[in-house]
Design brief:
The chain is 38% helix and 12% strand. The protein is built from 16 helices and 15 strands. The protein has helices spanning 3-17, 29-36, 40-52, 70-76, 104-118, 132-145, 161-171, 186-194, 211-216, 238-247, 306-315, 325-336, 339-362, 411-418, 422-431, 461-472, and strands at 56-59, 63-66, 91-92, 155-158, 178-181, 199-202, 221-224, 254-258, 283-288, 300-303, 368-371, 378-383, 434-435, 437-438, 452-455. A seven-stranded mixed beta sheet has the order 4-10-9-8-7-5-6, with helices on both faces.
Length: 483
Amino acid sequence: MKKYEIVYMNVKEKIISGLYPEKTRLPSKRDMAHMMSVSLNTVEIAYAQLQDEGYIEAMERRGYFVAKRDYMKKSMGTISRPIYREKVYKYDFSYGGVDEKFPFGVWKKISKEAIDDLGSDLLKRVNPMGDMSLRESIATYLKAYRGIGAKMENILISASTEHLFQILFCILEDDKVFGIEDPGFERWSLLFRTNNISFKALSLDGKGVSKKAVENSGLDILCITPAHQFPTGQTMPVAKRLDILKWASQDGRWIIEDDYDGEFRYSGKPLPAMKSMDEMDKVIFMGSFSNTVSPAMRISYMVLPDILVGIYHKRVSYTACPVPVLAQRSLDIFIREGYFVRHINRMRKIYKKKMELVKDIVDGYEFLNLEGGDTGLHLVLTWDRPGYKNFENIDMVPNELGDIRKAGSDSQTKKNLCDISGDELADLADKRNIRVTSLSSYYIGEAHKEGLVLGFASMSLEDIEDGLTKLLELFGYGKLLEK
């Protein structure tokens, strides 16, 4: 699907569904181009198509509006807008979120400083690559704590990793093939499919993405999480990193390093970023403040190689930075005055306690395993097979197991219980007001390992203990399986 078709379908579906009622004014062409991360010309083509088909009409000096659709009302009846209410869970083990111990008082003070610091610049358009002061602060931080000698001119600020990828799609050649980890961030495969970008899923070998898979895939751009592979937690050793960098040395090849939680390593110092080893300037480094400060802040950044900075200015510099300048300058002061590093050190201690609690609880069950090392804000729970060797009272199995639950205690029943999937456990947990994600959700291919991804950042120690105990009871009501 071409880019103008994506814009066309997006607007058309909102009109048909009633999200854009008749007489609604559409975003300007410039605003829509910014929202969809496409060019003005792309939006013009999409709007022209919608106008030709009668979905919208142009009003001189006023913009584009949803046209009257009387015939649609007659054929479809009254369009009602569905009301979506996200379920609130008592125990939320989903990945994402941060602990509530945020320095609100400090941030309030900093926000006032930022207004004074900006002065009349608060009324001006921010540099397309982001506030220069924040980019300087990020460059200083990366040098001191991640070993990356980045220049301010190479750093680009945006609202999310997804926005950064949209910019890269405009910078890199259209015929490039991306390689992504399998399992990995589910948003990456969705993002590539939506933008009609070619990609290949690459298997892991216990130490990150398989070197053999990379070399034999014929890809051009490799997307990886070497410090703490998501979701498995595998860490790529230095020797393999050097091999991957050697692979990228050929013209047209690039590595995209997503350092999504590199600051949170609980034994020893944080591992140096792969970008710090990049002598050939082939690594595009991505970072985010969603895990370190707050996901609500919506501030991410990337460090572009010199050659790509030049291409950015030629092709994409017309786009506006989507992050409000006040938020950028507040974060700049937060980093520049040392609050950020102190906050990271404090949160590292808090998250370490939470991770240790999860490990202590799971350690009480002989067939359960935790994977993910001593880094990050989540762990992966897996189970051995057979695992129900101590199961004696089959009648205590939860009714929700459906056809797996059988009368008696025969060996076939035990085998079925051992084969329960992560998806089934996630569904059972949902009924008990526990939110958890099956490991299978992060696989691209059909083959997958059974497991659950346990995020713990946003939960209190008390809720982790209570919720995890209730979750583990789903394996057969806990006490039957304890060591």
